[in-house]
Give the backbone structure.
Amino acid sequence: MAPDINEREVERRLDRLLAEHGDVPVEEQTWVGSDEEFEGFADSARDGYLGGAYAWVVREPADAPPLTETMPAEANPDARRALMIRNRADEGWSLPGGGREDDETFAAAARREVREETGVDCSVGEPFLLRRVTAVPDEGVGDASADAVHLLYAFFDATYEGGSIAIQPGELHGAAWFADPPERLLPAAERRAETWTPDAGAGSRE
């Protein structure tokens, strides 16, 4: 097996995203798995898997669905809300998204995955984080000549455009809109939540 699967393509895609969007934080991460887990990762990469894209989708109060007649007027939302999902692994709340397909852009992958996972349509804006992952088998840790798979994950700010939450039961435990982010956020969601201001103007950060 040739070492460094996807390395050049990840570098090319990363350079393109940075050239398009400017100064975006790039996080380096190493994933270590068993030989069997790594082989599965490598097989997916050889079949074209390069990484994925996720979105912090924001809905303005005016875009919330109208109240039913039985709901009191004070139940109207008074703050912006962000869309979160709970995956079946139940590790915590995270951002909707998933792997790129074919030759789509990372932004296009984020839009498609948000729609497929939650039924919500969104407009994807600027990335707030790019994560470059190097996957290695546990026996290859510390060995510069060991095989490795390189992957890229992009996390975008996005704006709600339409739709109501309708999850895929076989894929997610749930999804919800939050003004105040819940506890047990996964790292990318937690990072974005640190600058989240639900009562501020659209897309603003502190």
Summary: Confidence is low (pLDDT under 50) at residues 201-206. Residues 7-64+79-189 form a domain with the Nucleoside Triphosphate Pyrophosphohydrolase fold (CATH 3.90.79.10).
